């Protein structure tokens, strides 16, 4: 995903308004960008709050800054500047957080990022995107640069399998149906989209038809999509590498509370409301939280048969 971002921002750099800000990472990854646009790249160092303030000033001067660094650093560390410098003024700046969720699991809690969606989606004027694969990353940055306001994009790190074969029609607030089905609908957010596809395959072997939707925009919600799936399926689940509190699952639960009662069961899959104190790579961290093909498949079967939680 991060390579897709680097390649796409190099293409988009042809727009003389685009300025790339880096929080002391990705310097070699941006070599092509820097070679073509040396006067529109700034390594802001380990000073994320200053980077947001700098970006706000550039945006207010008519430029389109894009700030890039590790996800937990571009959200929690500089939250006040995002709230006041960007959202309060509705400044068109794009924040790209790399290594969302448990991508940096082995580096410990400072690099875990399972609360960022919750923090960002409550900010007025903020748009929150979580593309599902490298192709969606390209679509997301294109859409974000056309948006007149602050946008936060959370992406994985590298090596995630691709689901699409080309850049999909990525529209902010419009979910992408990746696979059709009739029993279960998985609303997948962010880098767990390949996992959602694998779970769908596993459920298929149990004769359970599963629809997979890349629910890439957490704010604003695609309410039309939600209305459709909650009227059509026996079970609707959200899947995200984020806390079950405040993420896409929380956002959908809030939406449901304002709607007429649906027949569909609803369940949220994500990380628990705990810090992960164990050391291990992303795969191990997902196992700890039950975010595996077998674990998710068994829980969904249990819910459908009345032997699991709803």
Your description of this structure?
The protein is α/β, with parallel strands linked by helices and 310 residues long. The chain is built from twelve helices and twelve strands. The chain has helices at 2-12, 31-36, 48-60, 71-75, 79-87, 116-121, 134-146, 193-204, 223-232, 248-257, 282-288, 293-304; strands at residues 18-22, 41-43, 64-70, 94-98, 127-129, 151-155, 176-179, 184-189, 210-214, 217-219, 235-243, 265-271. The strands form two sheets. The chain has a seven-stranded mixed beta sheet with strand order 2-1-3-4-6-5-10, with helices on both faces. The chain has a five-stranded mixed beta sheet with strand order 7-9-8-11-12, sandwiched between helices. Strand 11, helix 10 (248-257) and strand 12 (265-271) form a beta-alpha-beta unit. The chain is globular. The two termini are 33 Å apart. The model has no long low-confidence stretch (mean pLDDT 96).
Can I get a quick summary?
The chain is an alpha/beta fold and 310 residues long. 37% of the residues lie in helices and 20% in strands. The protein is globular, with a radius of gyration of 19 Å.
């Amino acid at each position: 995903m991060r390579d897709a971002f680097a390649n796409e921002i190099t293409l988009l750099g042809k727009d003389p308004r685009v300025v790339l800000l880096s929080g002391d990472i990705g310097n070699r990854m941006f070599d092509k960008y820097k070679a073509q646009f040396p006067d529109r790249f700034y390594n802001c160092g380990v000073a994320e709050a200053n980077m947001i303030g700098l970006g706000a000033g550039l945006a207010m001067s008519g430029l389109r800054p894009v700030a890039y660094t590790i996800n937990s650093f571009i959200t929690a560390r500089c939250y006040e500047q995002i709230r006041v410098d960007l959202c309060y003024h509705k400044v068109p700046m794009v924040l790209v957080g790399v290594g969302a969720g448990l991508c940096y699991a082995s580096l410990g809690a400072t690099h875990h990022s399972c609360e960022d969606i919750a923090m960002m989606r409550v900010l007025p004027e903020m748009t929150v995107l979580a593309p599902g694969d490298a192709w969606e990353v390209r679509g997301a940055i294109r859409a974000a640069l056309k948006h007149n306001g602050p946008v936060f994009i959370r992406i994985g790190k590298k090596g995630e399998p691709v689901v699409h074969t080309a850049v999909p029609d990525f529209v902010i607030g419009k979910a992408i149906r990746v696979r059709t089905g009739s029993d279960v609908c998985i609303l997948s957010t962010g880098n767990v989209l390949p996992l959602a596809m694998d779970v769908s395959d596993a459920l298929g072997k149990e004769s359970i038809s599963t629809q997979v939707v890349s629910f890439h925009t957490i704010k604003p919600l695609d309410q039309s999509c939600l209305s459709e799936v909650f009227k059509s399926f026996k079970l609707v689940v959200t899947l995200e590498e984020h806390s079950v509190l405040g993420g896409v699952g929380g956002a959908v639960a809030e939406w449901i509370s304002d709607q007429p009662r649906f027949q569909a069961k609803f369940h949220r899959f994500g990380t628990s409301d705990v810090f992960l104190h164990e050391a291990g790579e992303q795969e191990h961290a997902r196992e700890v939280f039950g975010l595996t093909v077998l674990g998710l498949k068994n829980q969904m079967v249990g819910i459908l048969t009345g032997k699991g939680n709803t």
